[in-house]
Design brief:
The structure is a homodimer. By secondary structure, chain A is of the alpha+beta class. Chain A contains 5 helices and 3 strands, in the order H-H-E-H-H-E-E-H. Chain A has a 3-stranded antiparallel beta sheet with strand order 1-3-2. In chain A, helix 1 packs antiparallel against helix 4 and helix 1 crosses helix 5. The longest helix of chain A is centred in the N-terminal third of the chain and has 13 residues. Chain A is elongated, with a radius of gyration of 15 Å. The N and C termini of chain A lie far apart (40 Å). Chains A and B meet through helix 1, helix 2 and helix 5 of A and helix 1, helix 2 and helix 5 of B. The structure holds a DNA duplex.
DNA sequence: ATAACATTTCAACAAACATCGAAATATTGC
DNA sequence: GCAATATTTCGATGTTTGTTGAAATGTTAT
């Protein structure tokens, strides 16, 4: 990962609402969830949310696909992994002081347990 | 680590010059290096640099101590480690999908090899 | 005490950011 | 086609950010 990409990704995560959004998407798993669901879960105005989604998407941390009238946003685990990689890679002067880190969904989630 | 602290740390790293500064300090090792040396290495105005140091320090990513008329800045490896921990911890819905990451200086550096 | 050096503080300013309200765009069902 | 739903786009606005120049502070040497 290039430094510019890292800065963009870090900036995308360096905001309260956006960090919440991203973490919610991470927990939602690779299938993602519709924008409206995120909006209600985090109590954010839909247009504000779009703004933040855009930032996350530009950073490559999130992808979108349309499903009917809903837009389904999903976390991009690969990008998260490479960001972590970049941070640890440039840690310790390039010497491998940390084990490889990978961030991928633990398992497929069906529904949130009541 | 709390979310607020994470956001602050991420914001501190989410800027070109600051990421450079931090990485330089990381490579300098736990003994750190004087502000002036960082200024020349990265070609930054001293007051601008102070501004960025402040941000890093507020985020807990850096510490200062005075040595004569120089201010020695050093990376705070622990903080970096806990930031990485926070990011991986909240990855995958709390399930441990990634091995523990630690970021500490590889070894003591004497001088940069020519 | 004075001069030189290293760094910080202060005030100012353009640029980017986060949020809001209103209007526009797509999609579905009638 | 028309109304309803889901989301985005646009314009405006207050806030934060990054940089600069000038002045102030602290430290060392003479």
């Amino acid at each position: 990962m290039e430094k510019t990409a890292a800065v963009t990704a870090l900036a995308a995560l360096a905001q309260d609402n956006r960090l919440d959004v991203f973490r919610l998407l991470v927990q939602a798993g690779p299938e993602g969830m519709p924008a409206g669901a995120v909006a209600t879960a985090l109590d954010l105005a839909p247009n504000t949310l779009t703004f933040h989604f855009d930032r996350l998407r530009t950073a490559g941390l999130v992808t979108v696909r349309r499903d009917g009238r809903s837009m389904i946003y999903a976390a991009q685990f690969d990008k998260m992994t490479s960001l972590l990689g970049f941070l640890t890679e440039n840690c310790c002067g390039g010497a491998p002081c940390a084990p490889a880190v990978e961030c991928k969904p633990a398992r497929k989630r069906t529904k949130v347990p009541a």
